[in-house]
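Researcher: I'd like a structural prediction for the single chain below. Treat it as a standalone chain; there are no partners to consider.
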Amino acid sequence: MPIENAAQELAELIRRGEADYIEARLEESQNSHIVYRGRELESIGRSEAVGGNVRAMVKGGWGFVSFNSLSNLRSRVEMAIKQATLVGSETSQLATVPPLVDRVLSGVGKDPVTASLAEKKQMLDEYNEIIWRQPEIQTSTVGYGDSRKQTIFLSSLGSHIEQERADIMLRIAAVAVRDGDVQQVGLSVGSRGDPTPVQQLHQEVEHLSHHAVALLSAPKAKSGEYTVVLDPVLAGVFVHEAFGHLSESDFVYENDRMRELMTLGKQFGSRELNIVDTATLPGLRGSYKYDDEGVPATKTYLIREGKLVGRLHSRETAAKMKEAPTANARAISYRYPPIVRMSNTYIEPGAVSFEDMISDIKEGIYAKNWYGGTTSMEMFTFSAGEAYMIRNGKIAEALRPVVLTGNVFDTLKNIDAIGDDLDMNQGGGCGKGGQAPLPVANGSPHIRLRRCLVGGK
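Model: Treating it as a single chain, here is the predicted structure.
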């Protein structure tokens, strides 16, 4: 059964369902992938999937049923309602949103999935060959994926929203080894279905493999506190991982300590600091017109002029915390219920040029890119992909990758310069609640941190 026909049947079933609220999501997707491990092609192919879910709320309790067959839809709705009835014991709370009817096209001229697998493989063969020209490369990974998805969202309020989206992701990593010493350099690129960003990366891949080998001879930074300048990629990862997840209100609502730490109105930085999450920016991987609860996308200031002014919500968390919904309920596929997730998260640009930012640094560190990290509550540890000494206002010798550690709130207060060169990184995928990788973007201009703890030798 086509999902359009299934949508008509489901719309009537959930309209008549005996629950405080019911919603359904139908999905049809196509995907292709190519993966290399070292010189060898590990996997290549295309796949398709069709399925859907029903989510019902009764007395504050949720029932959720997912399915990959579009038959017996009545039983799916009945099962979701029954589940909700079993767990519900409070009053249902959902922020009010108007019922909406809309159709949103992907905006991409050509479906990336239907492009020739042979052409995609040839491009990746060229990248792999460049990596392996470099002596002392021990192993490498190249992973490419693209997708096209059509979804239909229905609600018992009367919403009927069709959305299409396309996505492309490329990740490349090279590992160099010498006398037991291992160094890794990576590259991640993505887009909303436009193949251009993943094409013609030959120079970038060559730099990647050269840099991996060069790091085997690079010195380590001496551990200690430095003035550190972060490039837009690493600063964007910092704002996403260290701060953005703390702004997801399901985490805040369920944690007494985080409610105390994340009190609206608290001063977190200088008046020049503004942090935003929005799905309204065209062309970014984290953008959409409606979230997976049918809420129209908004622009949400998390920090404005240094003060905490907002957080990210689903309809339920918005109602429970008596705040406005922000359209941040997202799911990676029909197999999962939507949870509070970021979209495109970034630090707004300031007015400082990169040259002025480093000009008065006698001895500091310039940290770029990233290839790993962890967060625990307000504490973070990130590994920069590249690092350079700053000496007397100039970029100096390359260093082995450094590890930056700190408290996110102290670090925000220690931002004393914000660049004028905002750049958005689309090479990542976010993970939370077993749902990964969710397409997102994050970004920042260059930023300067005072008294940042750097791990080295």
